[in-house]
## 1
Amino acid sequence: QVQLVESGGGAAQAGDSLRLSCSASGGTFSLLTMAWFRQAPEKGREFVGAISWDGTNSRAADSVKGRFTMSRDNAKNTVYLQMNGLETEDTAVYLCAASLSDQLRTQWTVYRYWGQGTQVTVSS
């Protein structure tokens, strides 16, 4: 059973940067496709980005493309989300997810393992 724990969220001003981390345990991290989703109040779970098991392939949602970057360190069992140029619309709970599929899927239903989430609040 894979456990995921996010960290790095908090309050920021528009234009600031934050880096989220997601640490994994209980499984073989290097086999997992990792993803970030976010959920704002009264909104559905939104795909943010995904990264392949070896970090060579990634995809990002149009809403964050050019501002957010995913990376991973398999030696540390950790995936990162670097968020630059934050906007108020980025305010949400950010959730880390993992899948045993090698496809970078955007649908949250295909991800088997989830963290509890970390809150990001961006003010103007």
## 2
Amino acid sequence: QVQLVESGGGLVQPGDSLRLSCAASGRTFSSRSMAWFRQSPGKEREFVAAISWILGNTVYADSVKGRFTISRDNAKNTVWLQMNRLKPEDTAVYYCAATGTFYTGSLNKTERYDYWGQGTQVTVSS
């Protein structure tokens, strides 16, 4: 079992930055790909960014490319999402997710992830 705990959400103004953190339990973190998804009211959960366990390759949704950066520290069992130039449309609950160990498939689908955090609210409003 893997437990994921997100933190760092909050209320910010358009153009501001925010960094989300996701702390994972267990000793298999380094062999799992990690991702951030988000969900706003009335919408389906959507992919934001992912980082693979192999070489730390990253993938981003087009809507956040160039503004958001995903990173990980295997020694700390932590993955981060640095969000810059935030927009009102970035408002959502952000979820951290982890794949099974040694997963090598696509990273932008919710069904590829076995473990999810409880989510952290990000609100971008003036």
## 3
Amino acid sequence: QVQLVESGGGLVQAGGSLRVSCAASGRTASASTSTMAWFRQAPGKEREFVASIAWSPYYADSVRGRFTISRDNAKNTVYLQMNDLKPEDTAVYYCAAAAAVYRTPAVYRESVYDYWGQGTQVTVSS
């Protein structure tokens, strides 16, 4: 079993920056996190894809150029650096991991991910 724990969420003003992290742990963490991704869910909306990384990063159009996903394989950790934040970025951000390597369009589908974190709240004030 693999556990994903997010951290780094919080309250920030519009135009500001925030970095969220997701650490994977468990006996099979290294083998189970070939593809890691961030999704988000705003109040009253469905959960949506934000970014993923396996060999290459992929981004949703709404965050491309503002957000950067990266990973530290030695630490089984994935990061999401969020710059120029907007009020519409307010959401609970979830980390997800898949054992297989996925590219688009598969990375957009929640069903390909094997593990999910509990989420971390990001609130952007105007």
## 4
Amino acid sequence: QVQLVESEGGLVQPGGSLRLSCVASGNIFSPNTMGWYRQAPGKQRELVAVITLGGSTNYADSVKGRFTISRDNAKDTVYLRMNSLKPEDTAVYYCNAKVPVGGGSRDLEIWGQGTLVTVSS
């Protein structure tokens, strides 16, 4: 019922930029946190960036200064602006959200379908 729908990734040259978006649908209340994870070929899934309802952010060291996470609470949408992309950024990017359930007694973690971002010349 509650789901995250991600925009499409794509092929980007090194040094290029790309913005991903993810919208939470089927949910009345804004997710407490929304973020992005990624899984590179042969690697474990890792946190890229996360943003709280109040706008507090956290980034992986590997993307600090290059990626920017933001959200539109009215639209239950989170964005990831990726600048200065590197080949090592190539991965499947997954949207993540924690939505309040049970009258706010707990959070339900949900995931997007994943979208492939390939950084290559």
